[in-house]
Amino acid sequence: MNEMKRSLIEVAGDMSESKDRVRKRLLERHEKKKDFKKNLLAGISVAAMIFVLFLTTNWLMNEQLGNSSDSNEIIIGLFDDTVFETSIKLQRAVGFIEEEEYLKEYAYDDYENYLAIYTYAQSLGYEITEQEINKSFEQTMNQMKVDFNSYFEELIAKSDLTWEEIEEYQYKLAPFDVALEKLKLHYVELYPKIEWNIASSLAQKHAIPYFRENYANDIIAFKKKHSLSLHDGPIFSGVKHVGRVVAFEDNMFLVSSKATIEDIETLSKKELMYRYSTEGTWYPLDDTPEISEGDLVEAYYQIQTSTNTTPIVSDLWDLKILEKYEPETVVNKNTITLTVNKDNISKVKSFLSMLEWEHANFAFSSSPDYEIVVNDIMYQIRSYSDGFVLYSTRGEYRKLNADFTEEFAGYLGIDSELK
To answer: Which terminus of the chain faces fewer neighbouring Cβ atoms within 10 Å, N or C?
Structure first.
């Protein structure tokens, strides 16, 4: 029995430690895990949930292939079979997923997330050194001794793993933690208002598409080897918030669903921030289209933070423009009334009927670019750089993506080039 295992057993047995303290510590370290799997983990016991949040956030990394001669940077090989298989054994021991197929898919989705974090950090020029890995590994093992005690020992026994295998597994995961910490600092420096959990979410937002685009062949080979679905898992864009942009500060923008055009036209920047800071939400200007004060937008978020004394601050996974606020052009803007070609009328009707319309609890401040009448319903069309916005006299709207915009423009016989 090695010294690490002996020290863990010596402190095992006292499980009366505050679960709230354990939960808080683990969530601070792996906050993004909760948001992506919250539906799956609902109903699981507190102890099991805490353990899953700790372990499954960690099954990242890969074989050490060597050290950089100058910087001691550790180069990690993609897709370590041992790490993946060990993580499956641990999840199987927890027991909240019984079907083997779903267990493997769940394990892969997390594994991909963590590989993405590491490779994306590398793409930004961040180095992972042996000293950083060793420090992270020691912190992880010490945390296990403090937070899990005998429960962790029991789970190891159920997973049919040796302590030496667990130590090797945790050491291979350490580069992920190091990479994540570097990316969190990266985004906190870019957007000073955000907290660490939001920084983690932004890191994942960028890392997953980067990984899938640049390591497609590695992903396919690994999935085939382990009989996994070749389809990429969906990327959840988040919860929608519709409102107007009222202010910019610290590389972020403030959106409020209660903001009025009158206030935007008459109040100063300071007055707008004072009025809407407590009921609006700050979002990072993170890969957003060009926006200005007064623009009506759909902001999609996954994580928000706030206190009784501070405004809401959020991550941002997508931003769509519903209306560009351009007061100087409102009076002179001419709306073009379109007549649908008889050969395309059935296509237009079919297109409009298949859209998922949403109730518009807001008002537009400008005239539309186009209007059409279909089945006695008037549809307004506003054209922007990221797609058309449709609004009907039934009080419903729909934002179209680029592909839908091009298709609908073709049916109407208008220029598909977005403004």
So the answer is: N
